[in-house]
Design a protein that fits this description.
single chain, 121 residues, alpha/beta, Rossmann fold, four-stranded parallel sheet, 5 helices
Length: 121
């Protein structure tokens, strides 16, 4: 029971941090730049056309790039504010990425759903 209480408290603090206006603003400003050079290199190693899970997707910077490259991609995050930003930024992207409010320690996906999972920053 105490462990569950601690986990909830930590999640609440993480959500508070990433929903804070200054953090949302930072990630909103960062998103249009897309992946860094080193992130681009890592993305090149993913299986073409694969199903990808982007854990901690924030404002969708990597998720959107993967969708533009033709991947079936789901971005998950604990911040509702950042997911709203990601959804707005991805509104014209095809194929459309999916964004979900999910805590990464309790993934609601079936086994073998993804060809790869990634988490940047």
């Amino acid at each position: 029971m105490q462990q569950d209480s601690e986990k909830r408290e930590l999640l609440k603090r993480v959500q508070g941090w990433f929903n804070a206006p200054e953090q949302v603003h930072h990630y909103q400003q960062e998103a249009p730049a897309g992946p860094t050079t080193s992130e681009q290199w890592l993305l090149e190693t993913l299986p073409l056309g694969g199903h990808i899970l982007d854990i901690g997707c924030g404002s969708g910077r990597i998720t959107i790039e993967l969708a533009r490259r033709g991947f079936d991609v789901i971005g998950i995050d604990v911040s509702e504010e950042l997911l709203e930003t990601a959804t707005t930024l991805a509104r014209d992207v095809q194929p459309a990425p999916t964004f979900q409010l999910v805590e990464a320690l309790s993934l609601p996906f079936e086994d073998d759903r993804f060809d790869a999972a990634l988490c940047f920053n």
